[in-house]
Amino acid sequence: MMGNEIHKLINENVSLRKDCDFCNESRLEVRETTNYGAAIIYKIGNTIENGWFATLSPKTGGDPTKDFTIQLMPLAHLTHFSQINSYTELAKNYGLAFSRISEAVYKVMMEKNNLKAKSDSKDFGISIAIYGKCTTWKEKKEHLHIKIFRLEVISDNRILWIALF
Ligand SMILES: [Zn+2]
User: What is the architecture, at CATH level 2, of domain 4-160?
Assistant: First the structure.
């Protein structure tokens, strides 16, 4: 039997909210830009039960062949990873969106920079990271967003997160 609190979380209202920037951006089409200059680069699905969209941040967008931050978000105002499981098509489309964006990133970076599938040096290697977080703490609870970005590998044991925020 499901506990009352997890039941509340999973059944939370995920309708678009007027006061949420990401909900407002989710209405934009591919190639349009947000009011802070992020470009909508990908969309899959068309309802709050199946849709995701991705933006390319203007902060690291100077040369996307070398550095970038992509943000992947559900169209719906989900606030928790666990809520994705309530919508089967949303879960499937997450996998498709993530894998297609990843392949595009590798194609662009490898072709433009002559990077190798297996490199003896970091100069010809490609390092990518993803980052996402969620909380039920009201003050920090926000529209789910998952970042995909280039990692700069400094040495075997130290990595610099160059584009986390
Ligand atoms: Zn939202």
Answer: 2-Layer Sandwich (3.30)
